[in-house]
Structure formats: structure tokens, C-alpha cells
């Protein structure tokens, strides 16, 4: 299959995208990335890493300095109208429409893309987002969480196949955050591809099928979330001791051990992937030294630990 044909199978196909702003600042360096149809892809990165720049280029809002982006097989620069109509973009804030009703505002968004009115679709979107009861309310009278939902409804009004969520749950309460996660999963079930940027790693851990990590304009990693957590995740064994230790026992130099809880807990970090975790041998050696324990449990690292390590280890 030609490169072009393979690319057409992806929702988004990015090749060699770079961006140098007029100030001379290079925000992106030769990014390659394919987003699969129907997946939830989370783009993680520290402040200023280039996430918004990348999304803006995919949406055709920012012009790249080099490289190409295909959306559903169409080039975003050459076929802007087609590609833009396939994309729903949920910005972080609602800046206009305060005096409009929910219904009018969402309906208007559909018209912007030149699509024929379809009130049944607008109703479906509003119901799915629990906004139906509020359809005749002016946007300015809604709570912050409801306004967020209106933003999503507006982005879905023209039936896009790809939805971008820029920090979807920044500043919303826990309950709404969980509702939004639920909603995004439901969207995926209808075949929509979802790309989100987030600072809440918990969000990526909870929802994403794949994760991309961007730092200083470079995409340093793209991986299935589960594989990433298995591959880079470390496991720890926490050993609660019968009597606290003052120092690490002699003769256990080869082990990644630390003392915690004022010496009452011994923590052993091991590679969950390796065949021999070394646990049996460690426990035997502790026994030989008369170190008794009352409890054992294992801890796994979170996506957050993995992310912090990745971004830190990048020179
Ligand atoms: N119009 C611009 N002109 C010059 N530099 C810019 C412009 N827009 C963004 N930048 C710079 O490019 C870099 C990447 O910015 P971008 O907004 O893409 O980062 P981000 O990963 O989305 O960050 P955040 O998580 O803080 O939103 C930053 O250093 C930013 O200052």
C-alpha cells in the first residue's frame, strides 16, 4: 500500500510537521503521528510543550512551517473546507453567545459549516449532554459545567468525525469530570475519534486508548496506554516490618531498597517485566537476618509517575 493510501486509513496523519513562530521560536520539530479512527488519543505534555500549536495546525488554524497533515485522507491546507467540516473543536472557554439560548447557539454552529439544518440531530446532542432541559435558557444563566457542555454540543452540531478537546475538564469539579469522561466514552462508541490534551494525567489514565507525550516541541513517545504502563511502570513491594530498622540491612546491596515510615517499612522496587522479580530471594535473605515482617503488598506506578520520569529524563 502506498503511503498516501495508508494515511487515508487514519483519522489524522501527520508527517514532519514543524512550526517556527515569527518570533523565531521553534514550537514543533518534525512531528510524525497517526491517529487511528475511533480511538481516544491523549496528548500529554508540560506547559509550553507545543500541544495547542499541534492541534491548531491539524485544525488548519495555524500554518505549519513544514510538513503535511491529512484529515480523513484530505490535506488540511489544500482542502481546508473539507477537513475543517470533519473536525469538532472544543475550546477551553466560551467567549461569545452569552445572550443566546442554548438551542439557538448550538443550531447556529451547525450552520457555520454549511450543513442543512437537522433539528433531530441537535436534539440528540443536547439530550446526550443532559442539556435538553436547558435548551431555552440563555447561556449566561448556566453554571460553569453546563457552559462546558454547551461548548461540546456546539462542536458536535455539524456531526464531525473527529473531536478535539483542549483541556476538557480544567477547573471543573470531580463529579462533572466523571460525567464528561463517561460522555467521551459514549462518543467513541458512536465512532467519533477523540483527541484530547490534558494536564490531568488521571484523565489520560482513565480514558485514553493511546498516549502521546510531547515536550519541547518533540513527540518523544506514542504508545498504547496499557503497554506503556506495563513497559515503563515499576512495581514496588512494600514490606511492613515487625520492628523498625535504623538502617538498611547489610548484605543486601544489590537490591533497590529504601526505608520508609521511620524505618518501619522496607520498599523494594523491581521490574515487573522481568522473569525473576527477586522477591523470593529477598524475603529469604531478610529471614536469614532475623528481620520479620507483618505485612506485604505491591504498589504499581501510575501514568503520572511514568510521565514525570519521561519528561525529566529528557535532556
Ligand atoms: N503566536 C505565537 N508566537 C510566538 N510563540 C508562540 C505563539 N504561540 C505559542 N508560542 C510558543 O510556543 C510554545 C508552545 O506553545 P503551545 O501553546 O503550543 O504549548 P502547550 O503545550 O499547548 O502549552 P499549555 O499546556 O501551557 O497550554 C510556547 O513556548 C509558546 O510560548
From TrEMBL:
<protein>
    <submittedName>
        <fullName>ABC-2 type transport system ATP-binding protein</fullName>
    </submittedName>
</protein>
<dbReference type="Pfam" id="PF00005">
    <property type="entry name" value="ABC_tran"/>
</dbReference>
<keyword id="KW-0813">Transport</keyword>
<feature type="domain" description="ABC transporter">
    <location>
        <begin position="12"/>
        <end position="241"/>
    </location>
</feature>
<dbReference type="GO" id="GO:0005524">
    <property type="term" value="F:ATP binding"/>
</dbReference>
<dbReference type="InterPro" id="IPR003593">
    <property type="entry name" value="AAA+_ATPase"/>
</dbReference>
<keyword id="KW-0547">Nucleotide-binding</keyword>
<dbReference type="InterPro" id="IPR027417">
    <property type="entry name" value="P-loop_NTPase"/>
</dbReference>
<dbReference type="InterPro" id="IPR003439">
    <property type="entry name" value="ABC_transporter-like_ATP-bd"/>
</dbReference>
<dbReference type="InterPro" id="IPR050763">
    <property type="entry name" value="ABC_transporter_ATP-binding"/>
</dbReference>
<keyword id="KW-0067">ATP-binding</keyword>
<dbReference type="InterPro" id="IPR017871">
    <property type="entry name" value="ABC_transporter-like_CS"/>
</dbReference>
